[in-house]
């Protein structure tokens, strides 16, 4: 109980700091922070799937793309307000996750990895198909209007987009936190740890895994929707297979089973390519790889693993005093 | 609850074939409500196969298993808990990374109803469910002497303690029938004594019927009211521990084998 309360306070603290950054950052940094939150939410979807339920998706970029395109299509072609597109993007990606997960999860872990891989490879090409280009804009993609602050709030567009992303992202973290802390979260972990025993406890394996996959797809899809709102442009090649792998890296670096770790995963995804580029313009890929390997040596369970180790150490005296 | 004469678990002519091998050959027996029934037999006699047929891991080739008026043959595995069948596993199947408390709470999964949306939104029903589980959880932690390690990872605990966690996990689901797969396996003499005492202590308050598969003869003979003996997939005896102990077939199959082993006489 107590542990949960301190985690909630910690979360609120981080949220407050992130909100405060809206008022002290340049618009370039605001964009970077926005994308950090976007990637954090995308990684969060993988934490729920991989960290809690033990399923591996190599194609999370596909759900990111679906969320992005739903928002882009509704905004560019149908003049929807940006905020109204987010729930639709969430529902569409959840549905897609459910449909993909339904057959794949019954076959077992590696098949899911393969199916999602196939999806990630296929999606950019489907988006380019001529027959759909009336909707998707084909190779050219779609351009949208930039969101503005509502109610005449004295905020620039960039500040508002960042704050909007932060509010929706914070909500997603809250939902994921709640979900993983009750009956369903325990069932997810039980299935990951020992599926035969989980089944004997009355957990419907296929049902639980499919729903978890849908949740994961939804979270990553919401991230995609938020990225469309921030970038105001979508094109098929932004969603190539490399995006899925980058998100996977963010998952591992943040810590597969850590919800706060997803924030660090998002930061890693957003900032590491830039940092690598600054260190060496000639071979950023090599620097990226080296940093990644060094990271895994120093924090084998990711940033989240380090955080929970520190939290346990801080709690030890309290437990002894009881 | 049950009329004394109506069996809670009824196994009728159960046959299990794996390819050409007949692992169970038309086995029948009943377990009455409130009974502790021991299932014994030498290695390879089919007792684990029979156990797996009852718990739904295997689907028997022929025959029928009914529990509390419901056919178990063909029932989905995740429905067993809801029907009132709890179990433990031969080599302990805990959720190792989860705490003792969380492990036990998973045992109450089938008693809950809240889904993904209710949990994500932390609706009042979710909190009510958590509160409803708190009392039985505390009772079981106390009963099985696990309170001090409630927050430890289950996988890090010594084996005998893990066995108690598994028992608590099964009991919180309020099973009518508890299936124990070699509960004494891996325990020393004193721990087996403690287990026998524990089973006697919990059966009343938890209104349990217990079916236990066990190698450990003295445990079975001590706690069971009824013993079923198997050999090569056939039932060779069925009765009170005294009857079964004196049964010539059982002496030949079971004790004869250990005697032969003791004398290193080699296979017959």
Description:
The complex is a heterodimer of chains A (322) and B (268). Chain A has 14 helices and two strands; from the N terminus they run ααααααβααααβαααα. By secondary structure, chain A is mainly α. Chain A has one domain (2-243). In chain A, helix 3 (60-78) packs parallel to helix 5 (109-128) and helix 12 crosses helix 14 (302-321). Chain A is globular and about 50 Å long. Chain A starts with a helix and ends with a helix. The relative contact order of chain A is 0.18. Chain B is of the alpha/beta class and 268 residues long. Chain B contains ten helices and ten strands. Chain B has a six-stranded mixed sheet, sandwiched between helices. In chain B, strands 2-1-4-5 form a four-stranded antiparallel sheet, with helices on one face. In chain B, helix 7 links the parallel strand 7 (177-181) and strand 8. The longest helix of chain B is centred in the middle third of the chain and has 20 residues, at 124-143. The radius of gyration of chain B is 20 Å and the shape is globular. Residues 260-268 of chain B have low confidence and may be disordered. The interface between A and B is medium-sized, with 27 and 38 residues.
Structure at a glance:
Chain A has helices spanning 2-21, 27-52, 60-78, 82-107, 109-128, 133-136, 157-180, 183-193, 195-200, 205-231, 241-254, 261-279, 284-298, 302-321, and strands spanning 142-143, 233-234.
What is the strand tally of chain B?
Answer: 10
What is the rounded distance between the termini of chain B? 48 Å
Category from helices, strands and their pairing of chain B:
alpha/beta
Q: Do you know the CATH topology of the largest domain in chain B? A: Rossmann fold
Kindly state the percentage of residues in helix of chain A: over 70%
From the coordinates shown, what is the CATH architecture of the largest domain in chain B?
3-Layer(aba) Sandwich
Strand order in space, largest sheet of chain A = 1-2
Order of helices and strands of chain B: EEEHEEHEHHHHEHEHEEHH
| Range of strand content of chain B | 15-25%
